[in-house]
Each structure stands twice: as C-alpha cells, then as structure tokens.
Amino acid sequence: MTSVPIPGKLALLVGGGPAPGINGVISSVAIEAIEQGIEVIGCRDGFQWLVKGDDTRHETLTIDKVKAIHLRGGSMLGTSRTNPTKSEKDMQNVLDVFRRLNVTMLVTIGGDDTAFSGSQVYAKGGGAIRVAHVPKTIDNDLPLPGSTPTFGFETARQVGVGIIRNLAEDARTTSRWYLIVSMGRAAGHLALGIGKASAATLTVIPEEFNDHRVTLDELCDILIGSIIKRRSMGANYGVAVLAEGLLEAIGESGLLECMSTAQLGRYGQIIRDPHGHLRLGEIEFGRMIKDRLSARLEELNLSVTLIDKDLGYELRCADPIPFDAEYTRDLGYGAVKFLRSEEAGKYGAIISLVGGHLEPLPFDKMINPKTLRMQTRRVNVAGEGYECARRYMIRLERRDFDNPQRLAKLAGTAGMTPDQFRQRFEYVVTK
C-alpha cells in the first residue's frame, strides 16, 4: 500500500461489549499514528457523547499514556452500545463534532454493529473521514477470512477453561451438576471452545440443531440423557456448557409455549438493545433451565443437585494473553497503515490479517444492506472439529439405542423398561 500524507486528526472509539485486547489496539494505533506525525484523540464511551453533539468528551492520546496499557484488560476509553445510525440527526451530530475537531480519520473498535456505524460515518461523510474498523468480540462470530479469530476470543476461552476446570473439580467433590451458560449470542464458538478444551461433560450449541427448532423441554431432555448416562457409568456429577444463543434459538414464542407470561417474568424482562438484539443478559436462562430441568428430573424420580452459573462477564475484561496482545498490536498497526494508504480514500474497511499480511475488507462487501450487519460465522457442525468435540462428550447417541445392552443399562438407571426409555429419549438423537 502506498502511503499518502493525510491532514487532520485521527479519532479512536470503542463500541459494544468489552473484550480482552481493546487497550492493545488503542495503544498500537496511537503509537503508530503519532510516529507518523498524526495527532490522535480518544473519544469517551463510543458514540454516546458524539450523538449529542458533545465535543468535549475526548482526550489527546500520547505515547506516554498508551505505551503500558497493551497488557491490561478493559478499555481506557470506555465503551457503549449507542447506535448513531438510529436517526439522521444523531449521525449529523457525529459528523459535526468530527468536523469541529478536525478529525479526518477514524478507527472504530467493536463488533458488527459498531462496524455498521463506522461504515455510515464514512458514507454519510462523503468520504471526508477515512474509516478503519478493528473487529472485536469474544464470541468469534464475525466472518473474517479462513479461521482467523476475532481478538479477545482466545483470552476469553483460556480464562473460561480455568473456571470450568475448578467447577468440574467441585462437581466431582460434591456430587453435583453445574449448568454453565456461556456468552455467545449468535454462535457457539466460545461455549464449544471452552467446553472442548476443558473436557466438560457436554456442550450444547444452537448450530447443532441446524434448521430444527429446539424447544426448552428438548434441551432439558438432552441434559437428562447425559445425567442418566453418567450415572450408568457410576458418576453422579458433571458440567454442562450451554451457549446463551440457545435462548434466542428457542425464541420468545418457544418460551411462552412452555410457560405463561407471568412464569416467564420470573426470569427477567424481554427487552432489546438499541441495535434490536434480544438482551439475553436480562433473562436468567441458567435459572430457567435449572428450574425446568429439576421439575422434569423429579417426574422421573431422579435426585440431582443442580447449580446454574452464567459465564461471560468474568471473561470480557481479563488481561489479554500473549496471543491477543500480539494480535491486537498487528491489527492496530494495520488500521493506521490502511488509513494512510490511497485505498482508504476509496472505501472504508474492516481490518483483517491473512497469513500475516494486511487484508482490508471493504464495508460494502462485508455488511449486508438488508440486515445492516455482517454475516454471522457459525460453528461448522459438519467439520472434524465439531465431530471430535461430540466424540468426547457424554450424551445420548444413536448407538445407545441400537445396542440392546447399552439401552438396557440406561433404562435400568432411569427406572424404566428399554421400550419406555426409547419412547422418552430416542427423539433427541434422531432430530
């Protein structure tokens, strides 16, 4: 890429939820830009103050301020989910602030919603503001080339594995089952990555159901099947990792089929964020599963101690592991290199690295004009990676029903005849 002199300042902002490595991007962008003679300002709390036309909530970044933050979790600039594209006035306020501050370059750090917001700054500004977006999410669900991860995912997985290992030992020691709900709104990468690496008893993700609509009771029966199978092996404990996206897969209508509106209200409110997403964090999905599972186990006269736990907020502001510390330095450097190139005058882009080389991905090729979001990268359940994960889980399988000895042992553990057990649980392996 050919570098060209760009007048004006470079602004940095962070949108969406935290992820390990944000400060690494801020640090590397600021240092490289300053070294190139560009003044850098950090906007506080994403677009929150910009949409109000407030041009005071920013700070000038210096090398001294950012040189030691790359190994710290969190975001020195804060973050927010404010959506500047909800009204023309909001977007105009953003552009007006940038004009007054002489901002001609913008680096946004965030997920697909922040990417769309950045793309609109470029489009509505008529190209007067060059925009580079650095993709961030612990969910790892953005469609980067090949198997390139989103920054923060590897750190979140490592921290999550440590937590699951501790809970697994507690489960073994106290003879109980843990139901762990892992963050992952649209895809099961984080849940599967944590569950597979920590050797959890089983992991359930929305992708495994394909076009089949999962129900709350079916999810409970998958868990009961695992509990029974473990018990038939002489183990009265286990850890189940559930992707929070299962809640969205079940859907509001699916939840209401199993319980009344009043009952559903016990677990939180059905509300959506400024980008239209169901606020999964507002619903106590783990407690909902625990209560429903307890009732269904009681119907079978199976006594099991269940503990539910949400896993996610503990991961988002963890100090980045070396992988993410190095990766975010590359991404920040790449963002500045792109903004200084002739290409940045032609299009705004999402920053990606392929084989160690910078590969800017134009907004108009990455963002669906109908959904206003990037296509979700989901777990490939047809690949060997997922096939391997399933092979090491303890859950009901087709061979449990095809083998008479296996079936008889499972049925006896559940206090049923083989025919009763088949009628009750076979559907979870034939979906």
Distance between the termini: 51 Å
Number of strands: 13
Going by CATH, the architecture of the largest domain would be 3-Layer(aba) Sandwich
Mean pLDDT level = 92
Output the strand order for the largest sheet. Answer: 3-2-1-4-5-10-13
The Rg value, from CA coordinates, equals 24 Å
Query: Quaternary status of these chains?
Result: single chain
Our count of domains comes out at 3
Shape: elongated
- Please state roughly what percent of the residues sit in beta strands, choosing from under 5%, 5-15%, 15-25%, 25-35%, 35-45% or over 45%: 5-15%
* Count of DSSP H/I helices: 18
- Ranges where pLDDT stays below 50 over 5 or more residues in a row are none
CATH overall fold name of the largest domain:
Rossmann fold
| Helix/strand/pairing category | alpha/beta
Q: Helix fraction?
A: 40-55%
- Which CATH top level class of the largest domain fits? Alpha Beta
Major beta sheet summary = 7 strands, mixed
Could you walk me through the main structural features you see in this protein, from its secondary elements to its overall organization?
With 431 residues, this protein is an alpha/beta fold. It folds into three domains: 189 residues, Rossmann fold (3-Layer(aba) Sandwich); 164 residues, Rossmann fold, CATH 3.40.50; 36 residues, no CATH class. The protein contains 18 helices and 13 strands. The strands form three sheets. Strands 3-2-1-4-5-10-13 form a seven-stranded mixed beta sheet, with helices on both faces. Strands 7-8-6-9 form a four-stranded parallel beta sheet, sandwiched between helices. Strand 11 and strand 12 form a beta hairpin. Helix 5 crosses helix 6, helix 7 packs across helix 16 and helix 16 packs across helix 17. It is elongated.
